Structures are given as structure tokens and as C-alpha cells.
Amino acid sequence: MRKLSLLTAVFLLSILIISGCSKNAEGNNSGNDKVVLNVIDPFGTEPQDSQLTDILKQYEDSHPNVTIKRQSVPAENLISKVIQQASSGSAPDVIFSDAQMTPKLASSGAITPLDKYMDKFLGDDDLTSVYEKSITEIMKYNNKIYGVPVGNNTEVYFYNKDVFEKDGITPPKTWDELNNVVGKLKENNEYSFGYSAIASEFASWSFLPYAWMKGKDLKHFNTSETIEALNFWTDFVKDGYTPKSVLNWTENDVATQFINGKFPMFQGGSWIIPIMEKEDINYDIIPLPTPEKGGDSMGPIGGEVMVIGKNSKNEKAAWDFIAWTQDEEVLNPINETFGYLPAYLPAQEKYLKEHPKFESVAETLKHGKSRTAVVGIDYPEISKELWKGIQNVITGENTSDEIVKQIQDKVDNLSD
């Protein structure tokens, strides 16, 4: 937990007494001035929809002068809608945005920097004392803070403990160990391992950690290390350890196949954990295996950030809401429902004690990477080229050598 000065402690205590709300909010907005906060989010499906509705009501109940008008839109339409609204001077006050889209929103002028608010929020602390250094990548654009995380997800391995114990198998920590494990699992199972290589962001999201763990990124893609990583990942399908159906499966589809016994191990997002908890299956989670023993497991940093629309007439009230959400009593229930890990470290500490399976998620995110960090607003276009390439390698239409060259050419052309 971060240290508080006596003055800050007194202030926070007064907030708690007056409003019964979060200790992180700047104030309780309980004056006579009525405020209508316009909020837009991509959480229109259950259980996220009900969870966010409850959170917004909690804020309204503790801030009687604030009314929240919420609009949920599909994730694929949210960014274009916000940019359009901002261009007409009617951007929402608070936007729940996919973390990877912060560069696009910021570069288009649709959102406002939050540095002055974050400085006050942090007090004597540094940003990296309350958020992992890796997480701060998704909060910034051009060295300015634009977003505050709701929570984060990433890629981990799920495995069936009963099958592993029955076959005398230890969960893998390295690529060599993973190759040995899938071989042993194949002896008594139709398939050993599952993942998503569907023609969408899922495929890029799932593969990129393997390139990162070989020390490469999207700006330095045409290398022998990236070729090795791509061959390693796609060969599971070619060698019969992973079903070719992964070309058509989302990660939730992969989880369903795991539950149904198709394979005893799979790679998936941490948002699947709440799904698994409802199933009668003895499972556990490990970080992605690393190329060499003792290496750092890495994964993509996913989740949403809260940003404030450009020229919001309720900017201070919007920030008050964002700061309020960082309290563990507010933040942790959201993350429990979403299958995320709280990014705010003071809240994360309690969360991990209550949800120990997320330790592997925390370990992975500590060394996680933002997909937009090195290519910025060009990422969606590059990712599309990548997932198409991954599919072509699996089907045999192209070699890994050809695909990494195509990706590098795409990156170079976009950066010219």
C-alpha cells in the first residue's frame, strides 16, 4: 500500500465519512451543481453489463448530484464513434476503451491528457510505484498519460491437473519442456494442446509473446528468431498435437473444447478464469513457457482503460469517477467479473490473496508488452497482416520465412 501523509489521511477520512465512497476520489461532488456524466463502453453483454451497471449506480448513490448516462456499443464500433463525436464537439465524458486503441484516440484529438490529475492522485508516489512499469505503456501516448486501467488480462496456459498427475507430467516452463509435454500427452489423448489461430486479432495476440520472448518486436520482425518462434507455435498443428480447427476457434471456443476433454492443456486469456471456476474441472494456470530456462514469461497487455473525452464540460467530475474506481472495494469486484487483474497495485495485493490463480497472470503482466508500443496507430493494420500470415503458415500456403518478410515490409512501408 502507498504511504499517506497525515493531511492526506485526514482528507480521505473525511471523504469516507461524508459520502461512504472511494478513498481515491478527489471529492464527493455532493454540491448543489448537478452533473450529468456521459459514459460509453463496450460491455453490453453479460456478466460485464450488469457489473458495470452496479458500479455506476454505486457512484450515483454516493454522489447524489451526479447522474450517469451510459451508452454501450460493440467494441469494434466504439473507437470510430468516439472520434466522430469528438470531431463534432460532443465526445463522451468517460470512455472505456480497449487499451491498444489509446494511441489512435490520442492522435486523433478525441481524448485529453490526464497528467495534472494523475500528479495529484499520486501525491509523493511515482507512477511505477502504483502501476507496474509494463502497464504504464498502455496508459501513455507520446509521454503523456491518457488512460487509467480498469484492469488487465493476458495469455496464460490452462491445464487439467488430473490428467497431468495421472500421466506423471510436470507443467512445462521452457519450450523444450513444452515439446516433451505435448508428446507425452498425445500418448493418451486425441490432442495435447489448444490455442486460437482464428482470422482475427486473437491469432496475433496469441502469437506475439513468442516473438517477444525471443527478443524481437514488430519493428524488428524479419529475423531468424521470429521465424523460429513462428515455426515453434504453428508446428503444434502441423505435427498433430493441436487440431487444425484452431483456425476457426476463438479463445472461448478453445476453452470449451478443453472443458469437453478435447485436449488437457491450452493457451488462453485470463478472462477465461471465471468461466473455468464454474466448471467441474480440476485445473490450474501457469505462465507461458520461455525459450530458455530462467527467462521471463511475457504476454500481451489487454484490458480496458478509462479516458476522458476532449473538451468534456465535466472533466473534473469525470476524473473524480475514474479516481473513485481505483479503490479496491470498487475495482476488485469489476476485475473478478471480467477475469482481469487489477492494475492498481494497492488493490492488486488484496486481490491476489483472494484469487491465487491470478499469480501467474501477475507474473506474466510484470514483463508484459503493449501491442502498440513500437508501431503505434499502425498496429491494427499490421496485426491484420500478421493473423493472415499465421493462418497461411498453418495451412501451408506460405512459409514462416515468407510471412515474417511480408510483415517487415508492411511495417517499413507504414513507417515511411
Outline the structure in words.
By secondary structure, the chain is an alpha+beta fold. It has two domains: 6-146 and 302-361, Periplasmic binding protein-like II (D-Maltodextrin-Binding Protein, domain 2); 155-300 and 372-415, D-Maltodextrin-Binding Protein, domain 2. It has helices at 6-19, 48-62, 75-87, 102-107, 115-122, 127-130, 133-139, 161-166, 175-186, 201-212, 224-238, 251-259, 273-277, 315-325, 328-338, 345-354, 359-366, 379-395, 400-415; strands spanning 35-41, 66-72, 94-98, 140-141, 144-145, 148-153, 155-160, 265-269, 283-286, 302-308. The strands form three sheets. Strands 2-1-3-10-6 form a five-stranded mixed β-sheet, with helices on both faces. Helix 2 links the parallel strand 1 and strand 2. Helix 10 crosses helix 11, helix 10 (201-212) crosses helix 18 (379-395) and helix 18 (379-395) packs antiparallel against helix 19 (400-415). The N and C termini lie far apart (45 Å). Mean pLDDT is 92; it is low at 1-21.
Explain the layout of strands and helices:
Elements: H1 6-19, E1 35-41, H2 48-62, E2 66-72, H3 75-87, E3 94-98, H4 102-107, H5 115-122, H6 127-130, H7 133-139, E4 140-141, E5 144-145, E6 148-153, E7 155-160, H8 161-166, H9 175-186, H10 201-212, H11 224-238, H12 251-259, E8 265-269, H13 273-277, E9 283-286, E10 302-308, H14 315-325, H15 328-338, H16 345-354, H17 359-366, H18 379-395, H19 400-415
Parallel strand pairs: 1-2, 1-3
Antiparallel strand pairs: 3-10, 4-5, 6-10, 7-8, 7-9
Key words describing this protein structure:
416 residues, 5-stranded mixed beta sheet, signal, SBP, D-Maltodextrin-Binding Protein, domain 2, Bact_solute-bd_prot1, 10 strands, 48% helix, alpha+beta, disordered N terminus, 3-stranded antiparallel beta sheet, globular
